[in-house]
Amino acid sequence: MAAGIDDIAIYIPRLYIDAEDFAKARGLDPVKLQKGLGVSQMALVDSNQDPAILAANACLKIMQKNKLSPEDIGRLYVSTESSFDESKAMNSYVIGMLEQVYGKGAFEHCGGIETKFACVSGSYALYDNTNWIRAGEAEGKYALVVVSDIAKYDKGSSGEMTQGAGSVVMLLNDQPRLLAFDPKVTATSIKDEYDFYRPFGKETPIVHGQYSNMLYMIQVRKALEAYKKKIISTGLVKLEQGETILDHMDYINMHLPYSNMGKKALAYLVRHEWRQLPRWKRVLTEIGMDEPVPKDPRGTIESVLGDEEFMTKDHEFTKLFTKTSEYQEVYESKLASSLIASTMIGNLYTASLYLGFRSSLEFEFQKGIELEGKRVGFGSYGSGSSAMVFSGVIQSGYKEIVRDMNLENELGDRRRLTLEEYEILHENKLTLEDPVLQPKREFVLTNVKTDEESRGERRYVFNE
Ligand code: COA
Description:
single chain, alpha+beta, three-stranded mixed sheet, globular, binds coenzyme A
């Protein structure tokens, strides 16, 4: 049975900080953000928004667009790493909000949980729900998988320039208009790591950014190896002499903590795949230098990162590699369109990969490319850490969805914050009653109880 993504919708909060303003205030070169990281704007939540609101607003959007009633939905999964309760799943808040619109008890028949594994958990949720459909358990109902996060980092930290907020919701069924997942190919890797984590009670994560970037690439590569074996054994792909599995992915979407991480990760995967192939000789000739090797090739990530001579040379080699005509062709045709939305919105943790997928669909369609039948590969990564590689094929009904995509319209009337306003918000100095923006047909947080008996209870309203 086919199963996959029938439709996709996003909700991005309208406040943002511009890279230029941010860089100036922190004494950084704006070009580091804009060109070095691929960050132009970072979306931020208002004082009366939380990750459950972002999720509920996205769910309402997709349900209204598809004229769905709660009866049509069999499962609602929420994936996030911005949880505000250790026990009550974010689903229940989202259901509570949706029932303000659809009526109390309207979703009672619906199942679902909150999933957590840093940025990869949405991919696990998609996989589980796809299998729920494949198993014939859905009885004609849809699953909603919503990925929602607020990527907030400490003031003055290097992560502060890779913030963002928003959610993406995917509607899954057995006759998807957009993308059918390839069966029996999903591959994972997992490892106990401390590259990025957020201990109980802490609002912002502890991040080892460079370590995390390298771990991300290594773990995704391991998952890609496993994916390769699986997809070949299913017979979906046959590798000819001199080919890599990446040649069989028309599009590649990578996890995007910031836009340029996609470039970095793709270059890493391509480089490691091509190294075994006859084409590598040609590429090396164009690069004009030998591929550097670390002093201790079997060393740890720390030892490689600490090997300054290697890191400098490797940086130079990677830069030259990404400029080769063969790599440029891969980058432009398979990845570039997926990075556009990220530069305008920033880091969405769990939702970053899927914002990239959404971006790729819109901007590839605008090029006039026929997308039906194209295979899309996904490289998902969550710190802590786990990676997942899987793929799907774009379906014949995709135009019905993609022709109406317009990121700029969806972002709407955005409000550029001054640095002063940003810092007030960042320090949580604005109250729920005193947001920057007036809500427009969306959910807002009106109260978080503080008394002993009901501490932490949240109240939301839908603003017409
Ligand atoms: N002009 C142009 N480019 C510049 C520049 C300038 N003036 N200064 C630096 N750059 C480039 C660097 O060369 C580098 O590019 P490269 O990656 O191609 O080498 C890029 O900008 C970033 O610079 P770098 O020095 O590596 O940045 P940093 O160490 O200060 O921080 C991160 C970058 C991503 C590590 C940091 O922002 C971070 O930790 N973010 C959080 C990421 C995260 O949370 N990940 C895990 C969960 S998703």
